[in-house]
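hey
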């Protein structure tokens, strides 16, 4: 959301994680993590890596926490990036929940452990924490009647409502992350078993469905079995595939560097997956997969619909502020969207509507980036703010919703 830094010292991490677990209920955390671990064990490696592993913001970190406890190791001396982020999130939850009514606390205790909605509720916590750090008093709305925003922020200069929207860019794409992971899981291990390495680049005519995924896998494996290992091939009613495969020779690779190079070189709109045989501490014979669709995604339409819904939840008698989290958008991509982008044009057009006269602005944020200085970890979350020049509340037009950029 902004460049304020909720800092923690390494020595605080275990205590913050324990306090977060106490808020959620240790028994509830254990059961949720056990379900997560069972799902991971039942799934194939590509489903685990590209879909399940980070589906919940904390389960991977909790798994690491329990593993260290079982081994009798110090949490503070064995902090991973996931445990560091868990501790910082713990600090936010512990701080913000103190201002929550009992009914709101109960909702957050439940939904922060729900694998489908946890990220939505964590986003609300992060935004409330941001305004709390700026000196605001947070007054949460209880679910007692109709539509309403998340909370009211009271400051000496302005009182305003905040509505949070976590927007999954994946939903508006023609290839969803989960469907891509299934295709990769069904295709790449079979190519590996046949003794090949190389690349497979798929272009679909329409969106990826279970039916088109199965059809692609069958047709590609038939091509490989016919020794059609290199070239461009049309696949009727589905799209096309470019194959560049060769017999696996056991050639060692640095997986980390190869993955970086692969993700950097893949087409901008393509999903990518990478599978390699294990060979000592390295890998061998990688297979790279990209999948994209000929037709453009409708991401901006999905964002506009979410924003319109958010406006309806804001009381017209007070200034409103809409905060959107964009999944699958990286920090440097957000900076590029600030001027001359489709996002900027769409947002400005929406704010120009009379129905948005009470909305002071719309902010977009992306996933935190990590910075380290000495023993302190900091997670920086940048925000992009579009103000409403037509807002009917003059005092809201110049209000500092986001902190000024760092020098």
């Amino acid at each position: 959301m902004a460049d304020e830094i909720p800092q923690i010292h390494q020595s605080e991490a275990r205590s913050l994680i324990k306090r977060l677990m106490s808020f959620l209920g240790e028994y509830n955390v254990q059961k949720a993590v056990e379900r997560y671990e069972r799902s991971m064990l039942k799934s194939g490696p590509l489903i685990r890596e590209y879909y399940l592993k980070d589906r919940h913001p904390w389960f991977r970190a909790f798994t690491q926490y329990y593993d260290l406890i079982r081994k009798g190791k110090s949490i503070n001396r064995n902090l991973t990036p996931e445990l560091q982020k868990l501790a910082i999130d713990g600090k936010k939850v512990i701080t913000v929940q103190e201002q929550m009514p009992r009914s709101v606390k109960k909702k957050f205790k439940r939904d922060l452990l729900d694998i489908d909605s946890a990220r939505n509720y964590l986003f609300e916590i992060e935004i409330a924490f941001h305004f709390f750090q700026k000196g605001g008093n947070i007054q949460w709305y209880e679910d007692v009647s109709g539509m309403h925003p998340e909370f009211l922020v009271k400051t000496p200069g302005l009182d305003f409502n905040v509505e949070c929207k976590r927007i999954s860019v994946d939903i508006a794409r023609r290839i969803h992350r989960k469907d891509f992971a299934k295709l990769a899981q069904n295709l790449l291990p079979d190519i590996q078993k046949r003794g090949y390495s190389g690349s497979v680049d798929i272009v679909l005519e329409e969106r990826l469905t279970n039916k088109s995924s199965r059809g692609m896998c069958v047709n590609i494996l038939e091509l490989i079995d016919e020794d059609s290992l290199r070239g461009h091939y049309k696949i009727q009613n589905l799209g096309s595939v470019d194959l560049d495969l060769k017999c696996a020779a056991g050639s060692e690779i640095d997986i980390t560097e190869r993955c970086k190079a692969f993700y950097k070189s893949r087409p901008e709109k393509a999903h990518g997956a990478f599978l390699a045989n294990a060979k000592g501490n390295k890998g061998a014979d990688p297979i790279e997969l990209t999948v994209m669709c000929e037709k453009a995604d409708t991401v901006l339409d999905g964002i506009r619909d979410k924003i319109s819904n958010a406006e309806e939840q804001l009381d017209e008698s007070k200034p409103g502020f809409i905060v959107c989290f964009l999944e699958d958008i990286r920090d440097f991509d957000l900076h590029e969207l600030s001027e001359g982008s489709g996002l900027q044009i769409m947002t400005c057009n929406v704010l120009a509507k009379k129905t948005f006269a009470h909305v002071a602005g719309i902010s977009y944020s992306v996933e935190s980036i990590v910075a380290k200085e000495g023993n302190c970890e900091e997670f920086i979350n940048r925000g992009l703010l579009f103000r409403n020049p037509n807002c009917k509340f003059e005092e809201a037009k110049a209000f500092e919703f986001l902190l000024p950029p760092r020098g």
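Residues 1-5, 369-380 have pLDDT under 50 and may be disordered. The chain has 14 helices and 15 strands.
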